[in-house]
């Protein structure tokens, strides 16, 4: 068994996945995890790993951690419809990143009101192979606060 602790990818307040206003995420269809109501404008790497996917529209990416966990980070709800407006990816597929590295700059002020919610989601896409523990609550600081611990089964 291998465990990693992810740090908060944004500053903001934690939202239980069941309370995220998107049935795909709240229904755990994409995996288990947590939501965040972001108060910072740059998504950062929650752990060391490899960028395995960056959405063409820049609103989401997947980072594979050293223990194999596929950390999917999705910024806002229905943000794919913005077709990239408000998102500036700073990494590319295949790139190695370290915890705290900047991944995507987001213009939350510019996209607010154009999407149903700015709540951003972090889920373990291959969560059938991992358990999540020590999920954070309350307000977190990007790159500083423990967000969740991911352990291989």
Automatic annotation (TrEMBL):
<keyword id="KW-0813">Transport</keyword>
<feature type="domain" description="PTS EIIA type-1">
    <location>
        <begin position="22"/>
        <end position="126"/>
    </location>
</feature>
<dbReference type="InterPro" id="IPR001127">
    <property type="entry name" value="PTS_EIIA_1_perm"/>
</dbReference>
<dbReference type="InterPro" id="IPR011055">
    <property type="entry name" value="Dup_hybrid_motif"/>
</dbReference>
<keyword id="KW-0762">Sugar transport</keyword>
<dbReference type="GO" id="GO:0016301">
    <property type="term" value="F:kinase activity"/>
</dbReference>
<keyword id="KW-0598">Phosphotransferase system</keyword>
<keyword id="KW-0418">Kinase</keyword>
<dbReference type="Pfam" id="PF00358">
    <property type="entry name" value="PTS_EIIA_1"/>
</dbReference>
<keyword id="KW-0808">Transferase</keyword>
<dbReference type="GO" id="GO:0005737">
    <property type="term" value="C:cytoplasm"/>
</dbReference>
<dbReference type="InterPro" id="IPR050890">
    <property type="entry name" value="PTS_EIIA_component"/>
</dbReference>
<protein>
    <recommendedName>
        <fullName>PTS system glucose-specific EIIA component</fullName>
    </recommendedName>
</protein>
<dbReference type="GO" id="GO:0009401">
    <property type="term" value="P:phosphoenolpyruvate-dependent sugar phosphotransferase system"/>
</dbReference>
């Amino acid at each position: 068994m291998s465990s990693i602790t992810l740090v908060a990818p944004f500053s903001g307040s934690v939202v239980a996945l069941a309370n995220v206003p998107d049935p795909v995420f709240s229904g755990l269809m994409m995996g288990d995890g947590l939501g965040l109501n972001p108060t910072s404008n740059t998504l950062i790497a929650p752990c060391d790993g490899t960028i395995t996917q960056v959405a063409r529209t820049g609103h989401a990416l997947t980072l594979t951690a050293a223990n194999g966990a596929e950390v999917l980070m999705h910024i806002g709800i229905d943000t794919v419809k913005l077709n990239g407006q408000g998102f500036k990816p700073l990494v590319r597929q295949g790139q190695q990143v370290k915890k705290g590295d900047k991944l995507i700059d987001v213009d939350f002020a510019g996209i607010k009101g154009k999407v149903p919610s700015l709540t951003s989601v972090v889920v373990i896409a291959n969560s059938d192979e991992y358990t999540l523990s020590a999920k954070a609550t309350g307000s977190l600081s990007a790159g500083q606060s423990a967000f969740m611990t991911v352990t291989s089964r």
